[in-house]
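Bit of a strange request maybe. I'm writing a small parser for structure token strings and I need a real example to test against, not something I typed by hand. Could someone generate the tokens for this chain?
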Amino acid sequence: MNLETIYVISDNKFGKYIAEWAGSKKVEVITTQQKNSNLFDLVDGVVIFHENHNFRKEDLETQDVLNENNRAVHKVDLNGTLSATNSNFIMWLERNKPKSLLFLADDAVIKNNNLSAFLEGVDETI
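Reply from user aminoacidic:
Good idea to test on real output. This should exercise your parser:
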């Protein structure tokens, strides 16, 4: 996988968590505003982390904008079966071959133990 850049939302605990994780992966992390009108020019896709399909309104709106501009969308349910969730994400990465992704989530997901397990499971791919 040749993921080069992960975009996260400024002043967001989830974004800080992802930045720390990505630091050892040689993946650049850039902060941005969620209402950035040029977001679809910056990213090849968006990954929305969630628990049991509980999405923030802003994340769904961002997903819609990116989807309308033909950017790939993937949702990661941290309360799903972890091995299946990891496999689906890895296949999505291989199929779409994104260079830059926007990672979105509510700050509450950083308390979910499956987040670190999920990220460990995709370490080799990223």
